[in-house]
Structure formats: C-alpha cells, structure tokens
Write a structure and sequence with these properties.
The chain has ten helices and ten strands. It is of the alpha/beta class and 255 residues long. The chain folds into two domains: 174 residues, 3-Layer(aba) Sandwich (Rossmann fold), CATH 3.40.50; 59 residues, no CATH class. The strands form two sheets. It has a six-stranded mixed beta sheet with strand order 6-7-8-3-9-10, sandwiched between helices. It has a four-stranded antiparallel beta sheet with strand order 2-1-4-5, with helices on one face. A hairpin with a 2-residue loop joins strand 9 and strand 10. It is globular and about 55 Å long.
Amino acid sequence: MTALLEVDGVVRTFGGVRAVDGATLSVDNHSITGLIGPNGAGKSTLFATIAGSLRPDSGRIVFSGRRIDRRPAHRVARLGVVRTYQAARVLTRMSVLDNLLVATTRHPGERLTTLVVRPRAARAYEERTRARAHEQLALVGLDTHADAYAGTLSGGQRKLLDLARVLMLEPSLVLLDEPMAGVAPALRVELLDHILALRRDRGITFLIVEHDLDFVMRAADSVVVMNEGRVLTAGTPDEVRRNEDVVDAYLGKAH
C-alpha cells in the first residue's frame, strides 16, 4: 500500500515536557490504523498536531504528498483530514439534521451577492446538501432522529452523529479519538460496522486512538504503540500482541 499520511520525527513540548518525542509513523491509504498506549503516552497531542490544532516544534507531517505541519486546522480539513473528539461535540439545541448542515463549507448562500445574483444556485446547493445529510444520517442509523434535538441523543448516538458530521466534509482521512468511550455495547458493534463499511465502500482511511483493545484488534489492519511520547513499535495486531515491550509498557498495565 501507499502511505497516505507520514509522520516523521515530530516533537511537541509543553513547558519543557516532551508530550510527543520524535514520533514517526505512517498510515497506508484505505487502511485502518490503531494508535494505542497508556495514558500520557502522547496520543491525543499527536492527533492534534496532525489535525493542525497544534503546531509541532520540529518534524514533518505529510498528507497525500503535501506537508501539513504548518497549516491551520481549517486548511488541513479542506485537504481531507478531519477529526472527532473524545467527547462528541454536538450542537444540542439544534436538530440532528441541522448539525450536519452547518458542517458544510463554501455554501454559496454565505455571500449576499450570490443570493441576489444567483439565487437558484444557492437553492440547488442547499437541496443537494440536505440530501447528502439525510444520506449520512441513514448511513449511521440516525435517519429517524433527523428532526430531534441533538441534545436528546444518547452518548453513543452523539458519537454516531459526530461521525456523520465529519463525513459531510468528504474526508480522505478520519482521525477518531476514542470512538468507543461512553458507548453502550450494542452501539459499539454498530459503530465498528460503520467504520469497516466506510473503509470498504468509500475508501476512507482511519487513524483511531482507542483504549478498547478488543475493538482495535478487530478493526485495525495495523497498530502503532506509543509510550512516553515515542512510538514504541508498529505492526499487525498479532505482532503487537506478541511484542514483549508492548506487554510491559501497556498491556501489562491494562491487565
């Protein structure tokens, strides 16, 4: 496979603490990669640097052949890299459907001149966007909740809404930050099925931070293990399971 994302020697410090300490990894195109490690390993900080929320102190991040480590988050997103957060960020007083509609960019109706000069174009875009939003909601099983307030959804349903919302941006790479946290067992199976289907049917690549090792081992093609800001090892799920350093640094602590 060809690498879609390459992280090379990334360092990010906070007041002298090296939260990410020379991390190097790659994510193949159309793959699912799990990123695991104990608390404080630097996983979320690395996520933020890839997404553009934080700038690395040094190192390179290349996505689809372009350096993105000096680009702001909104420009990284426009290139096709989007992320979710540990706590799903939904607009609770808006409908589920409207949560998806506000996620779109470059709406022609955002400019008053376009509304006056090309009103048909604005209406046509809105109709296409609404149709796409309904499609995404159906994809994650929330189509029957389209008109409900997002605040009425359960924690697991909010995670599904978060996933549907980032899909409105038509990403190539989705960074999922602990998608299973706070999700009921039944919805965990459903969320896993959605992720596998998106990779299979749409060719979307995933990099997933997750503490649920069973989920990671079932979903991922490859697993990257971080510890103390560094990449400890990377390999297939079976290789990672058998790695003694991983057992000592992470699996041993978890069990």
